[in-house]
Amino acid sequence: SPPGDQEAGEMGLAAVPGRQAAFRRGLAAAVQYARAVGCPRIHLMAGRVPLGADRAAVAGEMETTFIENLRYAADLLAQEDMIGLVEPINNRITDPRYFLNTPHQAAAILEKVGWPNLKLQLDLFHCQIMDGNLSRNLETYFPLIGHIQIAQVPGRHEPDSPGELSFPYIFELLESLGYTGYVGCEYAPKGDTLEGLGWLRSYWESRGLQHGGTSKAAE
Length: 219
Known about the structure:
Enzyme class: isomerase
Low-confidence stretches: none
GO molecular function: hydroxypyruvate isomerase activity
Catalytic activity: 3-hydroxypyruvate = 2-hydroxy-3-oxopropanoate
EC number: 5.3.1.22
Family: Belongs to the hyi family.
Number of helices: 8
């Protein structure tokens, strides 16, 4: 969904008090785009704690606004056979004022909203920075997950760049849990984009697959 007025520092509107009308207009536009390109999932961006406000002081009002907007979105998206996604973004490095920061917070809010077509967009980069414990978190929140995103930590580059995460292990864990959705590569390539995709070719080869993920046996 649209970020709002980025020049004014907005980064999503769903949890921002007083911006409900703008959120709904933006959601309608997002649905139009999603329908046109055949995309069944829309990231409903929560937004930031207002500049100068104390997070703890505004948390209750922001959560109430978020829940209200998510219920509205879920109803609208259900009519389109679409899924709404909420993504926790770390506030330690990436966005200090972003409202939604952990999968625990997201899961609690989704439970309060109570619509089955709202899911968790779990970016493992943010999850590792905020909480770590990725294996247990993936197992715990797997029923809520509607999309996975990846990037190495802390550089946010290719999965095979130096860092904290073992992506072959994570991919095998996702397979063992029964994940059949897409894995979004939301990282910043260290150089050329296509050269940076060498990690994927190497991963396919390690699994006995050819370019495009097809089995050599099937070939």
